[in-house]
Amino acid sequence: MLTFIVKRLVSGILLLVLVTSGTFFLAHTAVGDPTAGLLGNSATPAQQAALRAQIGYDRPLLVQFWDWLSHAATGDFGTSWRNFQPVGEQIALRVPVTLSVVIAATLLAAILGVLVGVICGLRPGGVVDRVLKLASVVLFALPGFWVSLVLVTWFAIQLQWFPAVGYVSPDQSVTGWLRSIALPSISLSLGAIVMIAEQLRNGFLQVANQDFVRTLRARGLSSRRVTTHVLRNASPSALTVLALMFVGLLGGAVVVEIVFNLPGIGSLTQSASQIGDIPVLLGLTAVTVVFVVIVNFLLDLVLGWVNPKVRDR
């Protein structure tokens, strides 16, 4: 098990270095000279040259890369080119907002997805199963921002159950915090619920037809215990989808945060992309990859516990 953990940690570190390095060079290639976006079109060549020297953009690219990488390894992502504030502090202020929404959406997707998947697996072709198939077609055909706008119109404007926009910190009001993340979390989780439910349903039906399940029934085990065995054998694929959904929800948070006016890393990514603030983009990339590595590492540990054959592979 120790070897299994060490391999996953090493692969995670390599992934972090490769992705952030690739993002560094791609960002510099795509942005080009960032001074125009930072100063505006009215800036003079002298002002642009002074800003390039101030942010170190006039140095060779490899020198800039090594300077950024060596500092990022210690947790220092530099300063923003827009407001010259530490990138790490700006991200730290916004990460709790995004994580609140994404974790809540993931929990909703896990609970409801498993519940619906088990019901559909136990009663294929039933009412819930048919509703799931219809929902999978409808939700994947609709744009995410449209779903968010519909939720705002119904539950925030017409029914006034939740606030339409804004974010309340939990240290100010736990109730206000829950109400402020409710609609964004529901909007993010709908597609994930359907995907997890479908994956679990398919795995459930596949496992339920195997010989060992018929043997368990022949031995007189109760339906609840048989269902537990089937669910444990069908869960790895659903867990993998759940982990992928978490990563996907981090990306989907950009749209949701714009619609609901949430001060998370999604809105920060948008503003940094518009003006070419490369240090902020690189810091956001590194933090996102760290989350991805942690989630995949935890997923591997859970899969290794559920199915020991995973550790052998």
Automatic annotation (TrEMBL):
It is a multi-pass membrane protein. One of its GO terms (biological process) is transmembrane transport. The keyword Membrane applies. The chain crosses the membrane at residues 97-122, 134-157, 177-197, 238-260, 280-306. One of its GO terms (cellular component) is plasma membrane. It is found in: Cell membrane. Keywords: Cell membrane, Membrane, Transmembrane, Transmembrane helix, Transport. InterPro entries: BPD_transp_1_N, MetI-like, MetI-like_sf. Residues 95-303 form the ABC transmembrane type-1 domain. Its main location: membrane. Belongs to the binding-protein-dependent transport system permease family. This is ABC transporter permease. It comes from Amycolatopsis dendrobii.
